[in-house]
Amino acid sequence: MIRVVLVDDHELFRAGVRGELGTAIEVVGEAGSVTEAVPMIRELDPDVVLLDVHLPDGGGEAVIAAVAQERPGVKFLALSVSDAAEDVIGVIRAGARGYVTKTISSEELRDAVARVKRRRRGLLTAPRRFRPRRVPRRRPCRRRRRARETSRRVSVKCCS
Description:
Blueprint: E1 2-7, H1 11-20, E2 25-31, H2 34-44, E3 48-52, E4 54-55, E5 58-59, H3 60-67, E6 75-80, H4 85-94, E7 98-101, H5 106-118, H6 142-149
Parallel strand pairs: 1-2, 1-3, 3-6, 6-7
Antiparallel strand pairs: 4-5
Helix pairs in contact: 2-3
């Protein structure tokens, strides 16, 4: 069973999430602010923290910064109404293993929590437009490499 702490400033939303998570996920604690969440996470040591990005006295980044060093086994899944790039990037850089919007279905949320718990490295469960794509690196053409190697300032037209 996966142990989860819910951190969101809307009590009604927390109650809805708790009801939708099902039997495979146990909600061990709930908090409505950064000041409530940090000591609760330290005490309960959950597997996953479902974390709102925007909280009244800080945000998801503040919770992650306060807890991540002390509790490296706790994984964070950001949950927000916003899908703005700065929100996604900020919370992922802070240490969240994933990011989902509040429009997610119950089944997708349960799946996201389970995936975050299983994986050790970064997982990004974000809107499709924010998912990183693998772009193959192209080697520069021979002429450009030669120009760089000789460190001449030559304007060389690329072969490809």
